[in-house]
Amino acid sequence: ARCFATEATPKVRPINKILISNRGEIACRVIRTARKLGVRTVAVFSDPDEKSLHTQLADEAFRVGEAASSASYLRGEHILQIAKRSGAQAIHPGYGFLSESVEFAELCQREGIIFMGPPSSAIRDMGIKSTSKAIMAAAGVPIINGYHGEDQSDECLQREAQVIGFPLMIKAVRGGGGKGMRIAEKPEDFLTALNSARTESQKSFGDSSVLLERYVRSPRHVEVQVFADQYGDAVYLWERDCSVQRRHQKIIEEAPAPGLSEELRRELGEAAVRAAKAVGYVGAGTVEFILDKEDLSFHFMEMNTRLQVEHPISEMITGTDLVEWQIRIAAGERLPLKQEEITRHGHAFEARIYAENPRGGFLPGAGPLRYLSTPQPSAEVRVETGVREGDEVSVHYDPMIAKLVVWGENRSQALNSLIARLGEYHVSPSILSGFANSINLFYFLQISGLDTNINFLIDLASHPQFQQANVHTGFIDEHFDTLFPPIVISPQQVSQAALALVFNELQAALSNSNGTQDPFAATANARLNYALIRTYNLRANEKVYSVAVKYDGEDVQIQVDNGEWQVIKAERVEDGGRLKIRANIDSNISTYNANIDGSSVSLFLESGKLDFELVQPKFLSAQVDQLGGGGSRVVAPMPGVLEKVLVKPGDLVKKGDSLAVLIAMKMEHILKAPKDATVKSIGGAEGDNVAKGAAVITFVDEEADK
What whole-number distance in Å separates Cα of residue 151 and Cα of residue 174? Predict the structure, then answer.
């Protein structure tokens, strides 16, 4: 195997095998570069990840534990033992999990295993935000005003909050990713926001300490990619703009940041290098700044002491492989390039594709990926993912499906490419999953489905203000109405859904070898000379459309809601077994993909995915009605773990009272009472897994009791 040790110095250590203490797309990303360099890889996997992509791509893989992160990917000592057992000289932590664990970095050092990250002292200094602020101020890096002290009593924090003024930001002193972060708009909101931030911080980082900062409304979030070696040299690889966020988490990033002068870019880069050198940094890191979008002044926010999720866009504009740099620097080599040799060319975007419901408050989702089709990768298009068709987005981990990365000669070209490639990313879930009980199964059929944010990303990238680069962290809130306009279903789209059902039946007839009595089966071997009729009831956007279809073996006639019959010329287009249709509807010829899964009909159109549902028979609806509704219960808005139950049967609750805490994708979600009511029953015990739509709290039906 190839090793990376080019200089005769005691610091050089050959690396020919790496253990990756992570999962998903970052594990796959590290494996690809390691394979290119001739370095063998070792994966670790939890029980649900045994057959995952990263496990199969690695040269070898070891079980690390059960599903929960605390019982698997956070087991530092066990992972270190696996590294020794496999003969790996180094551990790549990826991001999240152990990547910013001081204790794990120290453990690796004691055991003689290379930790592919900075020294533990740098992680400690930058991981505690109050400490990092002091170090940055001493290094001449601008910081924002706030309270970073050790006194964490409610009284002290309330007093300091009054001094800083409202609105203010409450942030966990450790970690990142938006966890343990809350905004208190006014004094009366402070204690509630503080307790929520503390709880989430404790669960995510094992530390409930927080800091307070003046909240800058609608700033830009600009970060600088830095790299440092073991010889005291450090460079910056330009900046990224990560301003557009939801739940304080990035959703779309671009490099370089638009609208900055070359002088400002250089000032940001040099400040970031000073920050890295101030803590004796080694390896890949990101220094994050708050940039005032009006006067372009910037202040240090935090440093992420690891490779960032969005690192591919820096690679795209600089022509570098940052994972390769990590391997080489960890082995003791000097930085591959000097600052003056690092040039940038073009513009790049990264869109994070999540299993979540943007119109439902971006609540995360989980479930199987029954249908998955991605854009074709190229030199200008990267699909960074850790899943394949048939895999599952797990409730136990982050709901990111993939990162779509595109490059163009300029921002406009890159943005056009992003929109086009997002339109080629097709995800459709299994609709047939849920409970074994038949009534519950039918109920789950109507509410389940793996939502993604792809449509939202298309709308976001197409938004006039985003096109003009008028971005800031409050972008989604400011443009909420235009980013989430009312959904309007056109007759053409209803016809497209009906055509998908027709061609799906035709394909089934062609594939059927047991003599089906389906009248459409006749088209498999002969042209029909008489009309056949199908009637579908399709639901979309809470409306049911009645669609009648006639097919004569050549043309399709469609009638929507008893309107006029329309003759449509349509054909199925070869697309590797996928359902792809070209149709002339109302003198408009278009080509689109579709997927039929049980009662779910998904269309993949230029504007994004549009879902229809074949309406269930009335007796099923009656069964669903018997399950309750009308505010008589509180259901889980997403699959998760019932962390805490705050009420018991017989309790009287007021509208807005907190009832239970649900943990999903490492985030805390508080379930609240929709009305004044009496608690009748609890739908599970603390620690139980609950499915999306499952009743967590049921109330006494006052009307029924009367």
Answer: 16
The number of beta carbons lying within 10 Å of the beta carbon of residue 145 is 12
Per the listing, tokens 């309750």 go with 628
Which segments of 481-565 are extended strands (E)? 532-540, 543-551, 555-560
Write the DSSP string, 444-485. Answer: HHHH-----SHHHHHHHHH-HHHHTT---TTHHHHTHHHHSP
Alpha-carbon span 598 to 373, nearest angstrom: 19
HSE-CB of 82 using CA atoms within 13 angstroms? 23
Residue with tokens 């979540």: 356
Rounded to the nearest angstrom, the gap between the alpha carbon of residue 218 and the centroid of all alpha carbons in its chain is 22
Q: Is residue 652 exposed (0-12), middle (13-18) or buried (19+ Cβ within 10 Å)?
A: exposed
pLDDT band at 9 (very low <50, low <70, confident <90, very high): low
d(CA 483, CA 215): 24
Max Cα–Cα distance, the chain, nearest Å: 88
Close Cβ partners of 420 (under 8 Å, ≥ 6 residues apart): none
If one counts every other C-beta atom within 10 angstroms of the C-beta of residue 409, the result is 11
Strand pairing category for 579-585 and 566-573:
antiparallel
pLDDT of residue 527: 37
Task: Kindly report the backbone phi and psi dihedral angles of residue 38, in degrees, each rounded to the nearest multiple of 5, phi listed first.
Answer: 80, 20
Contact (Cβ atoms closer than 8 angstroms) between residue 597 and residue 609: no
Phi and psi at 361, nearest 5°, equal 80, 20
Q: Which SS3 state, helix, strand or coil, does residue 91 take?
A: strand
CB-count burial class (<10 Å; 0-12, 13-18, 19+) for 275: buried
DSSP letters for 268-289: HHHHHHHHHHHTT--EEEEEEE
Residues 6+ apart with CB under 8 A from 422: 351, 404, 454, 457, 458, 461, 608
Q: Which of 29-43, 329-343, 351-365, 405-419 comes out lowest in average pLDDT?
A: 351-365
Helix, strand or coil, per DSSP, at residue 435: coil
What is the full DSSP assignment across 178-212?
TTTEEEE-SGGGHHHHHHHHHHHHHHHHS---EEE
Whole-angstrom distance, CA of residue 641 vs CA of residue 151:
32
Active site residue ranges: 306
**% of residues, the chain, pLDDT over 70:** 88
Q: Are 25 and 313 in contact (CB under 8 A)?
A: no
Judged on CB neighbours under 10 Å (0-12, 13-18, 19+), 47 is middle
Reported as a single tens digit per residue, the pLDDT across 498-530 is 999 988 887 776 665 444 444 344 333 333 333
Tokens of 347: 């513009």
Which sign, positive or negative, has the C-alpha torsion 462, 464, 468, 473? negative
Asked if residue 674 has a cis previous peptide bond (ω within 30° of 0), the answer is no
Q: How far is 517 from 532, CA to CA, in rounded Å?
A: 13
What's the full length of the chain, in residues? 706
**What does pTM read for this prediction?**
0.79
